[in-house]
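Budget justification note: compute hours in this period were largely spent on complex prediction jobs such as the one shown. Inputs:
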Amino acid sequence: MAGTFLDSTELVLNMGPQHPSTHGVLRVIVKLDGERVLGTESVIGYLHRGVEKIAENRTYTMFAPYVDRMDYVAAISNGLGYCLAVEKLLNAEATPRAQAVRVILTELNRIASHLLWLGTHALDIGAITPLFYCMREREYALNIFEKYCGARLTTHAFRIGGLQYETYEGFEKDTNDFCDMMLPKIDEYEELLTGNRIWRERMIGVGILNTEDCKAYGVTGPMLRAAGCAWDIRKALPYSGYEKYEFDIPTGQNGDTYDRYMVRMQEMRQSVRIVRQAVADIPAGPIMAKVPKVLKPPVGEAYVSIEAPKGELGYYIVSDGSTQPYRCRVRPPSFVNLQSLDKMARGSLVADLVAIIGTIDIVLGEVDR
Amino acid sequence: MVTAPWEGELPSALAAEFSDQIPAFLSYLGQNFLVAKPASVIPILQSLKDNHGFDYLVDITAVHWPKRDEQFDIIYVLYSFRRNERIRIKVLLKDGEQIATATTVHITADWLEREVYDMFGIEFDGHPNMRRILLPDEWSTFPLRKENGILNMDQKWVQENLGIESGQ
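Corresponding output:
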């Protein structure tokens, strides 16, 4: 029978770069058959600032604030990774006190990052209320950062060798108060969402990526754990004293959007657990290790990575013995995770594509660098 | 770089399998890496994945050394979940020399290799989509090559497409 105009034809649709649910300037070219996604292509680079080139033209110390501008939602994690990488090259280690404070601030930042993810992801799917709640609680974490170092978002909280600032009067109390406040709030979000039928229908079985696919695509972080692989760099290759703290690695089974949501909720609880242990036992002592004023790491190279809120964040730095990095490569989790979008989106509905982009938890500042 | 030799069961096994294709097993600051010849990097990646459990390709990147005969280092960072071990492969490459794509072994190499091409102009043979990824397709320079200064990028493109007269 000859086709009629009612027969579906393939349609190529442009989503973004300006689109509310792409979380920044991400352009996705979508090929559709009716509502069904046949394939996607991500066009990235709109926020490319050449951070790696800038690094080659700045001293090690001068480059530190730049890393905050990559994943600006979790600037403290970025800073920690960079400091650890340069410290590795210098063969130096932060003092015990500095390490404990670093862990506290990094975990608070993980909670802040997950909160922003939860709020915006819920908004993408159509639940507006959680955003206000999440922003409200995130504010408390940002207040602690502000009191500590004066900045809320791009904090530049750490220095190579330790910390710039001593903790402020009442830091322990503020952090403990935040922990006390946070746990019931997470329960509250879960009450709103976890059993919510609309929420579940929109998420269960959407954007499935199993463990094998995760490994093939290099996908790490909550996405890998939601697929059932209990892998977390904080446990596997501990840094900054994480081996001292007790915490669990939450995992899912199906590797779908819902499991990723559950994993991130659990991770916030675990972060609270780590913060509590760390605050209870901040060692006394200096906050800076003995590192020279002018940093000149010996000729060499090192790859150091940390568990950022979004996955494995790695720095590969090559030193030629001068004051500037010869090469500074950033291995961004968002960039690598975003690559799996096409695999997850194929065969899904166009409305689910929005949920899938959200569930990766990308920050375009980090994808494009 | 003051390196120590990397000894153990894994380097011996690889040395037995690839003999002269891996000229050196080295270790620096406790991080192990091997230096491989460009022609054999894909078989090495395959063998590491199939026989030794290195099933996660963390990163591919490059470093430019303009004064050297082999101008580029290509760095592969690998991790094994089973062994909880991270290693690196370093390949020394001449300018213009092609290297085979790793997408046949690890899918994640797709974007990573495109970024290396975008920044350094190194082409990966057999890559399904060897195009720029972060910069515009018409961009003329490879920014992370050392001869390109930080203020000396594609000024013509900026002038024409963004209407910024200085090109910066």
